[in-house]
Amino acid sequence: MLIIDSKDCENIDKALKKYKKKFEKAKILTQLRGRQSFTKPSIEIREQRLKAIYKQQIASGKIEL
C-alpha cells in the first residue's frame, strides 16, 4: 500500500504526481502483469540468459543499436 504524505497547503496535483512516481518505483504494475499468467521456471531462466547475452553483445560492440 502506497502512502503519500501531503501537507495542508500542498496542491492535489503535486500529491498525485508524487503518487505516480512512487507507483512506478514500486513496480506494482509489472508484478500484476507477471502474475496474470504462469511461466515455467525453465522458460524464465532461458529468457534471463538471452537478455544477458544480448547485453554482453551490445557492451562488446558486436551489436549496434
UniProtKB/TrEMBL annotation:
Pfam families: Ribosomal_S21. Keywords: Ribonucleoprotein, Ribosomal protein. The keyword rRNA-binding does not apply. GO terms for cellular component: ribosome. NCBIfam families: S21p (TIGR00030). Belongs to the bacterial ribosomal protein bS21 family. This is Small ribosomal subunit protein bS21. The gene is rpsU.
